[in-house]
Amino acid sequence: MSASVQLATFVKTHPDAVGRLVDFNPMTDKLYQFDLTIGNKELDAVTIADHAKFGKWVNGKLEATGAKYGIGGYMENRNIYAHSPLFNNGDVKRRHHLGVDIWGKAGMPIYSPLKGKVHSFKDNNNLGDYGPTIILEHNLDGLILHSLYGHLSRASLENLKVGQKVIAGERIATLGDDNENGHWPPHLHFQLIFDMEGKSGDYPGVCSLEEKEKYRKNIPNPQLILQFPKAVNA
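^ that's the sequence the OP posted. Answer follows.
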């Protein structure tokens, strides 16, 4: 049985073990499905490179649809990374997004959906990077799973300790603004990882086309945990 199947089985058989990630009521709140693929002609290079313009575009979509959050991104082929050297190393261009983004307002609370402990944390302070990042480790009936939370506020890292216990539904962080989150419009990068491969406080959230299938085996779809309803873009 693959690790992804084990995870899906755990969630199905332990529904009470999975808590919220953000404050979202599927009965009353709406989600907007963002399209950040290379095929979206609304996003030109100038808008993407200017985080204020990019933020205005994101907020405009949320306001126009009455959505509390925007969502999207798992294994999405994006064009928004071209402006940062972090994703462009010679002929290797990283464009495939490995997690899910939840677009909202700076300061919104972030919760751990599973019980576990703090694996590591770090301020990845580079243009286009995660900014403040927390990684938790979870033991799900013997299946080791890690959850990564990127683009947080710097205050989220204060007083953290490696090994610190976390319960499901516990508030662990708040969302950072564009001056501290890697210069992005406020959003949470949420990613699940089986094997951290020895990394601490950081793990790739974007890969090249050639690496996509390798990472897919190690990074399951976050929707297994989120279980969000289908977004309504109207």
